[in-house]
Amino acid sequence: MEIAVKISGLVKDYNGLHAVDHLDLSVPKGSIYGFLGPNGAGKTTTLKMIVGMTEPTSGEIEIMGKKVTFGSSYGRDIIGYLPDVPGFYDWMTAKEFLIFSGELFSIPKKTLNDRVKELLSLVDLTKHKNKKIGTYSRGMKQRLGIAQALVNNPQIVLLDEPVSALDPIGRKEVMDIIFSLAGKVTVFFSTHILSDVERICDRVVIINEGKKVLEDSMDNIRQVPDIRELEIELENEKDSEYILALQKDPSIESIFVDHAKVIIKTRDLDHARNQLNEVIYTKQILVKKMFVKEISLEDIFMKAVNHHA
Q1: Which domains does the chain have, with CATH numbers?
Q2: Which of 46, 111, 173, 189 shows the smallest number of beta carbons within 10 Å?
Q3: Model-level pTM?
Q4: Does 113 score more than 80 pLDDT?
């Protein structure tokens, strides 16, 4: 697995306060990597150190296998960046702004014009390309910001809280754009919105108070909770007394009954299902439905952060 961004022992100290505290993480090339944590966890500070806007107190940063130091020009042409509060020249049009941004990278005129046309289409602003940015909605500006981060055709794009201030429609539009980049560019985006990470990321790191508390693929992270829930809806609520007898089993954490609905919390899902099926069969219980509750990223996030705290 090729690594696009590698951070080792990264520290940022502000007068004795560790905003980032010996952080280690690896971002696979071509992945959509979710950088998750509560407000003030150190996400923005970390991104600023990666792009060279803030000098680390200590630690190492590698971009595409090469170590980078503060003040060096390496990474400038292969990284795109959208800050948490992007700035625009409101008197410019979207097309003018993207051309201006591309000229900062000395992109040849014809190549740049083709790139701007492509990006305006990607972020669905072609129809609005000649309108002043000052007339844009917040969602339109954020989409333009993503286009600006991609103007130099980077290998890695860093997005800091790209949807935090948007309404549901704006969030969906931006997340659809980010998802469309999968496999074409490495996307490293920070957020505190759990549902967005769960929807599009294939790898996630959770940080709290500047420290990493969990990092893994989404598939593996969903296996983290040691308590699973099994929900059953019965035809006859009186039959719940037979299921309550399963509380004697050491693998059963608890059983909650609400009329005909029964929720079993267990540390061994397969064993609990086998025990339940045996009770259903021997007692001839009629079941309307039975399903395993899916583990949400919110469950995992709260467990990881609370455990760290």
Answers
A1: 3-223 (3.40.50.300), 228-296 (3.30.70)
A2: 111
A3: 0.75
A4: yes
